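From the pipeline queue, job 12 of 40. The input is one protein chain; the requested action is below.

Action: predict structure.
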Amino acid sequence: MTCDRNRRRFLSAAAIAIAAAPLGAIGARRPKAAGTNKFDDLKQIDAGALNVGYAELGPQQGVAVVLLHGWPYDIYSYIDVAPLLASAGYRVIVPYLRGYGTTRFLSSDTLRNGQPAALGADTIALMDALAIDKAIIAGFDWGARTANVVGALWPDRCKGTVSVSGYLIGSREANQSPLPPQAEVEWWYQYYFSTERGRAGYDKYRYEFGKLIWRTASPQWRFDDATFDRTAKAFNNPDHVSLVIHNYRWRLGLAEGESKYDELETRLAAGPLITVPTITLEGDANGAPHPDPASYAKKFAGKYAHRQLTGGIGHNLPQEAPHAFADAVIAVDRF
């Protein structure tokens, strides 16, 4: 894919330094500040089934980048990535996913649905509402899977993707196959959520639950209470528990989705190739379940690169290694 030469005029000296820095060095540069920085002037917009809360940084005329968070995280996973990209001339959009922060359903009758196709459709609806024809989609955890979904199903709307832990599109049929015991242990919360005790437990202890996942998924990340508390406020969304529980139950075939997504889910279940330019990232200390990069490399049929980060980087890669994540977005744009 050719570069947009006009956008290059917006590149600042700082952005050029980011792109030129050795990846091992930037991957280990973990911010040490307490979680006191905030996104200014969060916006709201009706998009599809939702009224979406989002942060926006950078020039309107810049190449659009949509940064998608996962569970149990929120937009503050990108508190350091977003300004790096904005300073490089990108228009950066960081939305709260359905069930998080200030994002709300427009109708009380809409199923609180966490299936992958719904999250992908949310991203396209947000782009439509913001008059964005094409964007780089980047994410981790649920956000990485959603970036995969958009890249696979709507390649004409996707300039490229950045995906932590690679290709995460799956199928409910494949999820019926048991894994070896040690691998099953890593998914303990998925099975916990399949019970009503699990739903009640997450509802009652969502703060403690989130902090436990942060610690196990990023065992070498020394985040402080202020950093976690800043994100945990997003879990007070009235639909948060329902969305999380539905997401994991749907994966196991224990909850139904919406019929309007059936055709999209059928296409996803076939494991479609992603043809848009992509960089996948992995940290050397990711404590969450994640596939071996060799297992998914052939799923990316366009220009592709994988980057392995060192320095104790865990699952919340954009927040733990923001320079490396921003560098990957810039690099995909240059593919």
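Job complete. The chain has one domain: 5-334.
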